Amino acid sequence: MRAGFAGALAAVMLLLPATAPTNAAELSAGVAQLYTSVSIYPPSASAMTVCYGFVCRRRETLDFSAADRAALGKIMAAGRANAAAERAAVQKAVIWFDRRMAPILGTDKRVAKADFRANDDKHNYDCWDTTRNTTSLMLVMQMWNLFKFHDVGNPHYRGFSFGQTPHNTAVLVERATKVEWAVDLWPRGYLQPPDVMTVAKWVTED
């Protein structure tokens, strides 16, 4: 979570356009950096690399089955009423992902706010892992046209304030208002819904 390039990367990401195109080959620079920085491919409509073990030192491929696609489609269909409902559906989609990967990775043992102090990297995600994984999952759902009110945005970083812990998050951008929303799994334990709040509020948290 405290990778040396975090501060410089954050400054660059904050200057980039808010949204990333649907096509994985046309990612914004801020989103693309999530993958190039750890030498993995961005997600496609059929698969994504799942990072764990802190800063993607461990990784597994999730090949989406027809059942996976149906499950996520059903979850997101429940959020078609308005933007707030869609964000609530995204929370449920992230919980689905947490449950889906746990038997494969052993992350049913993961804890909230895991970092090197947890002394259990093989069962945990740090905030770089949750940012990559959540961004990837949302990009896949975007490729499947499951979003009606949002687009996937650039990840955001905080930790500039005195006493504030360095941290980063995946982001959704509401199409109508252009408001950025953090979708942050790292502060929550296994099967707990990720924090969803405006980025403006998120950057003030610790």
Descriptive report:
The chain is α+β, with helices and mostly antiparallel strands. It is built from 6 helices and 7 strands; from the N terminus they run H-H-E-E-H-H-H-E-E-E-E-E-H. Strands 3, 4, 5, 6 and 7 form a 5-stranded antiparallel sheet that branches. The protein has a two-stranded antiparallel ribbon with strand order 1-2.
Descriptive key words:
6 helices; 206 residues; two-stranded antiparallel ribbon; alpha+beta; 35% helix; disordered N terminus; 7 strands
Quick gist of this model?
The chain is of the alpha+beta class and 206 residues long.
Task: List the topology elements.
Blueprint: H1 6-13, H2 29-36, E1 47-52, E2 58-63, H3 66-77, H4 83-105, H5 127-143, E3 150-152, E4 156-158, E5 167-174, E6 180-184, E7 195-198, H6 199-202
Antiparallel strand pairs: 1-2, 3-5, 4-5, 5-6, 6-7
Instruction: Tell me, rounded to a whole number, the average pLDDT.
Output: 88
List the secondary-structure elements in sequence, H or E: HHEEHHHEEEEEH
Summarize the main sheet.
5 strands, antiparallel
Q: What's the helix count?
A: 6
The amount of helix comes to: 25-40%
Beta-strand content estimate: 15-25%
What value does the Rg take, in angstroms? 15 Å
**Distance N to C terminus:** 14 Å
Number of beta strands: 7
Q: What structural class should be given to the helix and strand makeup?
A: alpha+beta
Low-confidence stretches: 1-25
Specify the oligomeric state: single chain
User: Per the principal axes of the C-alpha atoms, what is the gross shape?
Assistant: globular
